[in-house]
Every structure is written in structure tokens, then in C-alpha cells.
Design goal:
This protein is α+β, with helices and mostly antiparallel strands and 136 residues long. It has one domain. The chain contains five helices and five strands. Strands 1-2-3-4-5 form a five-stranded mixed beta sheet, sandwiched between helices. The longest helix is centred in the first third of the chain and has 22 residues. It starts with a helix and ends with a helix.
Amino acid sequence: MLSQTQINNDSYRIVGCAIEVHRNLGPGLLESVYQSCLIHELKEAGLKIIPQLYVPVIYKDTNLGGMLKLDILVNDWIIVELKAVEAVLPLYKAQLLSYLKLACKPKGLLINFNCENIVKEGLVPLVTEEFAKLPK
């Protein structure tokens, strides 16, 4: 059974993979480069990933036809949204929250590679009500 601990452990592994990519490449590259390298690291770590997943906009059981594309879904419960920007704007957090709610996933990680230290400056974890419902 899925638990908060399991999700947090997987999040830790994802962040470790992101740190490895950042350690090897440093800041200043395009987001697409970081995404390709992170996908490689996640696969090497044995995590199940789906890159560039489309999420439909469903409201009151009606598909409204809009589609959002998230960067990476890991182990079917963690959404990873990547950036390579000067500053993490509130818009990026709203983007990740939208993906989380529409896809009904418990946790998301916003990772910005254009920084000196991912853990201190480039990482924004978000959880939803789905996460709170899970056992510890």
C-alpha cells in the first residue's frame, strides 16, 4: 500500500538524481538538456518514469478538451516539473499545482537547474490533499 514514507523516499531519490545531473552539468543549460539527463539518471536509479505526459482538463466529470503536458511522472505518483530559469516564479508553482490536482497525484517537485545549489535554491516540493490522505 502506498504511504507518505514511500513517496518521500522516492522524492529523496529523485532529488539525488537531480543533484547528480547538476553536479555534472552545472547551471546555465537549456531545460531540455537537463530533462534528458535527469530521465537517464532516474532510469538508472530504477525508477519508473513517463516523460512528457499529457493531462486532460476534467471539470465535474466533463473533459473540457484542454491538455496540459507535465515534464516527468515518476512511479505513477510524483510529478517532476523542471525549469532552468533565473528565478522560480509563483506561476511555476501554480503550474505544478494544476498538474497535481488534475492528475490526482499526491506530490510534486519543482526543480530549477539554473542555481548554485538545488536543495537550497532550486527545489520546491508540493503536496496535495491526496498526500494527506495516505498513511504515514
